[in-house]
Amino acid sequence: MFFAGLRLVGIDGGQWNLLNTVQINAQVPKSRSRRAQAAFAKLSMSTLVELGTHAPLAVSMSLGALNEKSLADPLLAALPARSLLIADRYYGQAPMLKELQKHSQRTQSHFWSECGKSSPCECKACMPMAVRRWW
Fold first, then answer.
1. What does the pLDDT look like over 86-118, one tens digit per residue?
2. DSSP state letters, 10-64
């Protein structure tokens, strides 16, 4: 799917519960909450997908707690040329914005992300509800 000649791609991360088997519980630590140990061990995954077709372009996974920044780094390296990357507000924070700018310049791509007013990047177009377009 394309918009203004740019391939539309999205990136996001999430967690999935793993079965409580002896083998999994021996290898994957359960995270702790403020009250007790979590009920399930987790599989954390971030995915770079083509929007429209939902075709995965790159996937990064790890066992245990979600660290979206470390999972996203290899995905940004797989960003296709001349893309428009649409990301959630996590990617609008300073550490991720610097990475997005670096990879966008390398691939002649652009990105949209929700971010705060104190963002370190230059905003090219401000949209309602703090959604900003970065070039």
1. 988 778 777 788 888 889 899 999 888 876 666
2. EEEEEEEEPP--HHHHHHSPPPB-SSSB-SS-EEEEEEEEETTT--EEEEEEEES
